[in-house]
Amino acid sequence: MDIKELNDQEQARREKLPKYRELGVDPFGQSYKVSHQISDIRLTCGKKSAKALEKLHLEVSIAGRIKALRRMGKASFVNITDKTGNIQAYIGIDVIGEKSYNVFRLADLGDIVGLKGYIMMTKTGELTIKVLKYTHLTKCLHPLPEKFHGLTDIEERSRRRYLDLIVNDESRNIAFTRPRIIRSIQHFLDSKGFVEVETPVLNPILGGANARPFITHHNTLDKNFYLRIATELPLKRLIVGGMEKVYEIGHMFRNEGMDASHNPEFTSIEIYEAFSDLKHIGSLTEKLIRTVAKEITGSAIIQYQDKIIDFKKPFRWVSMNELIKEKTGVDFAKDIKTFEEAKAIADQYKIHLDKFKNTVGYVMNELYEELCQNELIQPTFVYSYPIEVSPLTKKGKDPRFTERFELFVNGKEIGNAYTELNDPIDQRERFIAQLKAKELGDSEANEMDDDFVEALEYGMPPSGGVGLGVDRLVMLLTNQASIREVILFPTMKDR
Predict the structure, then answer these.
(1) Pairing of strands 316-319, 380-386
(2) Cα separations (Å) of 402 from 75, 384, 389, 416, 488?
(3) For labelling, which of 154, 302, 309, 363 has a CA lying 20 to 30 Å from the CA of 78?
(4) H-type helices in 303-449, by residue range?
């Protein structure tokens, strides 16, 4: 950065760099041995009286960023923040000595420092470190945004997440809560005998979901690959191979729009269990979410925005057809026989149909998405999807529909599950139907995967599988309305 582009505060901070060196201090520091996290100090000392602390005489070494600074001549108070919290410290020239205090006089908000001292209580009842040794570690060359009027715009916070984490406690809490949620999911599944596996991100064939892909090119093979849109087909190959209970948590990539609940790069978990079916997978999913919610928030009943979401009660099961009937009065399963009859209903509700959506099943799905799903606030398993929109799912008793559910909470899909299709002949016919839809303009249709069909020909046991959106689950459990708040580095438009 050109020195002329600096504001007064930035220039003043840079002018201090040679002053540190004159005092024999590297302005960008060395390693520092930390004995305690701030949260540990508060846990040990938070409820003790001043006399008890004096008797305990707990000596600590902490490292963190200066978030507040109150200078009073030859003594000062600072507030230090590490990843676990913040604490006040008292720094006096009579204790640390004149040379160290001269180093401290160069300190600015945002600097990273090490403090060694013992814990005491001030007259105002504030837990405080009385500093015996002050160590400068890293100079912050920019002033931090003001606490209440600084970095508040979500676009800017998402672009400069490092700064967001420095100044916003809520963002830091989300950043540490997300891994706890993932660990909780893993512990639950591991306790049920599932095995976590890894499958390829680069796929030569598009499949596993209905979505537009990102395409990349492998130079050595001179061949295009898709960034995966799902992990379904590799995981089901593992079921064929006899692993029986598998799951994968990983990144998916879908070349689609961005909004409050969609990011082109996102995290999902897919879970597959041999000798299972849709009902069993639904029960597993319900228990998983209830367990994780309780572990993370302390309760299976959570507040999300202005609503109370109840994961404690049994989740509702309702068919897509029932929901459409509640809205339109039309029973598609019984009364609608032709596409023309279905299209008339769609026209009545002013629902546009792409040219490849030329069956009753497609119309049902469009009506459901437009009229029903936003109203599914409490956890709801919507089951019995049309076969046209479920190319990898086992047929139900009525062959027009499949044994599939999607789990909705607060009007958003957070899970999608099947009784898995294990009939290789039927699977090949479904892939052929998808190819025809692609020819008619469906950019999200699956391609033919001959290797997967061959795998099914070796025999896949009756199985159930579910995919859950990890980001959306994190949104629910951290009470966030935007997916950008729960992804550390979301995809952003250019400034």
Answers:
(1) parallel
(2) 73, 5, 9, 13, 37
(3) 154
(4) 320-328, 332-335, 339-348, 360-371, 424-439
- Number of residues that make up the chain: 495
CB 465 within 8 A of CB 232: yes
Burial of 192 (0-12, 13-18, 19+ CB in 10 A): middle
Contacts of 289 (CB under 8 A, 6+ apart): 311, 379, 468, 473
The Cα–Cα gap between 50 and 216 comes to: 64
Distance, C-alpha 19 to centroid of its chain = 44
pLDDT digits (tens, 9 = 90+) for 133-176: 999 999 999 999 875 455 667 788 899 999 999 999 999 999 99
Q: Which tens digits make up the pLDDT trace of 170-199? A: 999 999 999 999 999 999 999 999 999 999
Structure tokens at 439: 């020819």
Task: State residue 211 phi and psi, 5-degree precision.
Answer: -165, 155
| Residue 391 and residue 446 in contact, taking contact as beta carbons nearer than 8 Å | yes
Q: Looking at the DSSP assignment, which residues form a beta bridge with residue 130?
A: 90, 118
pLDDT at 4: 57
Amino acid identity, position 120: M
What is the Cα gyration radius of the chain? 29
**358-364, long-range: CB within 8 Å, 24+ apart, which pairs?**
358/440, 359/386, 359/388, 360/332, 360/336, 360/386, 360/400, 361/386, 361/387, 361/388, 361/389, 361/400, 361/401, 362/386, 362/388, 362/389, 363/332, 363/339, 364/320, 364/321, 364/324, 364/332
Q: Which amino acid is at 408?
A: F
HSE-CB at 435 with a 13 A cutoff on CA atoms is 11
- What residue spans in the chain does CATH classification 3.30.930.10 cover? 167-315+378-485
Does residue 74 sit in helix, strand or coil? coil
Q: How far is CA 235 from the centre of its chain?
A: 22
Give dist(CA 10, CA 3) in Å, integer.
Answer: 9
Q: Quote the tokens at residue 315.
A: 């989740």
| Domain 167-315+378-485 class in CATH | alpha beta
State the pLDDT at residue 441.
Answer: 85
Sign of the four-CA dihedral 266, 158, 114, 1: positive
Please report, as a single letter, which amino acid is at residue 323.
L
CA distance linking residue 196 with residue 465, whole number of Å: 14
Topology of the domain covering 3-144: OB fold (Dihydrolipoamide Acetyltransferase, E2P) (2.40.50)
pTM of the full structure: 0.91
